[in-house]
Design brief:
Elements: E1 8-12, E2 28-32, H1 124-127, H2 133-143, E3 166-170, E4 174-178, H3 180-186, H4 196-210, E5 224-229, H5 231-243, E6 249-252, H6 258-268, E7 270-275, E8 300-305, E9 317-322, H7 323-334, H8 342-385, E10 390-392, E11 400-405, H9 412-421, E12 427-428, E13 442-446, H10 452-469
Parallel strand pairs: 7-8
Antiparallel strand pairs: 1-6, 2-6, 2-7, 3-4, 5-9, 8-9, 10-11, 11-13, 12-13
Helix pairs in contact: 3-8, 4-8, 5-7, 8-10
């Protein structure tokens, strides 16, 4: 069963998204410019793309250096939708080891970009958003010297809050200390874009890790900007609401070369939403290049998440993209969630400041090693019980194994009804189709929480279930 190595063609959707839960497949949505007079504007020339060649090689600049060589940690192939041709950690590979024949054409060397007209991508609702005067006053007061006497804000007095200080124990014998003064700030309102010290750390980290060409652009050219969100889910949702009207067309990418989609974005003048929650859970190095690392026009909006590596319950993620678009998202945050929990931001910021980039990446290595061991245990169990009943490919990242059941055209009833009777639960593959009613012979198994013994027993029960179904 093979899939074409090209993006899935324009899929007409409504307001709803396929991302109702965070166990969604990572994907890249490519959004065309709005219709109307602005759409008649000729597309920009395809002359500035930095792209990888075939396979997981990184893009090279005119001098032959890969972006971020001086700073980027070695990394393994990323999931589909994260800017790589490989099957993702949670989407099935239907091509096996077959190499995709589609490759982007060679492009001329980069040149200075022209200003981007982002207004043609924005929905009417997003374009009408104005800055909240109260929010602006709050942020202005927080930047002012202590001598300022403010009678403007509606912030409660932190002296009446019952929480006074906190010590959060960290692995390896360290701790994050939040004293009384910092606790007062942690319990108070904060800027909608994020607290300054966390934003500064994240901007430096994105520059060093991805080396985006847009880092030194002007705002009009799509300068790289970052904002903190309440999990990457909030960022993704707000990006959709900023860019997508009911009935609009979007592209969802199937396995393809990241340079190919980036070239199409430049040629046909659309934006790329790079949703990459499993980016930090890649099992082999070097890590694969991201769309952000190839973004010479300011066309990429990237969502990142701390959920898989620091905490899923703290609900903290961040958006990176062109400043005019990130500013629009911040306006939406001002009138919805207002800001991500200040306490959460301060706790994460204190940890990252304590670790530094080196310590953070070392922590990621420890997390990856854990999930690699878990993956290997699941592969052993699958080989033991499912060898003649199903087929699968070892995942290159993430926390899921995708399994194709032989002789079963649709796993929906098998899993949702009969599997529970066998006391084993997986996710039927149809849940991740664009049209969830389409039959799928796949199931998704998570190896994040179960012990090797539990995985072994679960696959024995699944094998018994499959044999009964056949």
């Amino acid at each position: 069963m093979g899939e074409p190595c090209v993006p899935r063609l324009l899929h007409r959707i409504g307001v709803q998204t396929r991302s109702a839960e965070r166990n969604r497949p990572a994907f890249t949505a490519a959004l065309p410019a709005a219709t109307g007079p602005a759409a008649a504007r000729p597309p920009p020339p395809s002359s500035q793309l930095r792209r990888p060649g075939p396979g997981p090689r990184r893009p090279r600049n005119a001098e032959g250096a890969a972006p971020g060589d001086a700073h980027r940690p070695a990394r393994a192939p990323a999931p589909v939708g994260a800017g790589t041709e490989r099957a993702g950690p949670h989407m099935p590979s239907s091509t096996g080891s077959r190499r995709c024949p589609l490759r982007p054409p060679p492009l001329p060397a980069p040149r200075r970009p022209a200003d981007m007209n982002y207004s043609r991508f924005i929905t009417t609702v997003s374009a009408a958003r104005k800055a909240s005067p109260i929010r602006l006053l709050t942020e202005l007061m927080q930047k002012s010297p202590p001598s300022l006497i403010s009678l403007a804000g509606g912030a409660p007095n932190p002296n009446v809050f019952p929480f006074k200080r906190a010590t959060v124990a960290i692995g390896h014998g360290t701790a994050v200390e939040i004293g009384e003064d910092l606790m007062k700030r942690a319990l108070q309102y904060s800027a909608s874009a994020g607290i300054p010290e966390l934003l500064s750390w994240l901007k430096d980290f994105q520059r060093n890790l991805h080396n985006p060409p847009t880092a030194n652009y002007s705002p009009e050219q799509g300068q790289m900007e970052v904002c903190v969100t309440t999990g990457s889910q909030e960022g993704l949702c707000k990006v959709f609401e900023m860019l997508i009207n009911p009935g609009d067309n979007i592209l969802l990418d199937a396995p393809t070369y990241s340079g190919t989609l980036a070239a199409l974005a430049r040629k046909y003048d659309f934006l790329i939403i790079e949703d990459d929650p499993y980016y930090f859970l890649q099992f082999e190095k070097p890590w694969a290049p991201t769309f952000l690392s190839m973004d010479v026009d300011g066309r990429v909006i990237r969502t990142d998440s701390f959920s898989k590596i620091l905490s899923s319950g703290l609900r903290i993620g961040f958006l990176t993209g062109p400043k005019p678009l990130i500013d629009r998202v911040i306006l939406h945050i001002q009138v919805s969630t207002m800001h991500t929990s200040t306490f959460t931001q301060i706790m994460i910021s204190q940890l990252l400041q304590q670790w530094g980039e080196k310590g953070f990446l070392e922590h990621i290595d420890r997390v990856v090693e854990f999930y690699r061991t878990q993956r290997d245990a699941m592969l052993i169990a699958a080989d033991k019980w499912l060898k003649d009943l199903a087929e699968w490919y070892p995942p290159a990242a993430g926390m899921f194994l995708w399994i194709k059941i032989k002789g079963v055209s649709d796993t929906q009833q098998l899993i949702m009804e009969k599997a529970l009777q066998k006391e084993v639960l997986l996710v039927p593959g149809g849940a991740f189709n664009i049209d969830s009613s389409e039959p799928s012979s796949y199931v998704r198994a998570s190896f994040s929480l179960s012990s090797p013994g539990q995985m072994d027993l679960a696959f024995k029960r699944l094998a018994d279930l499959i044999k009964e179904a056949l």
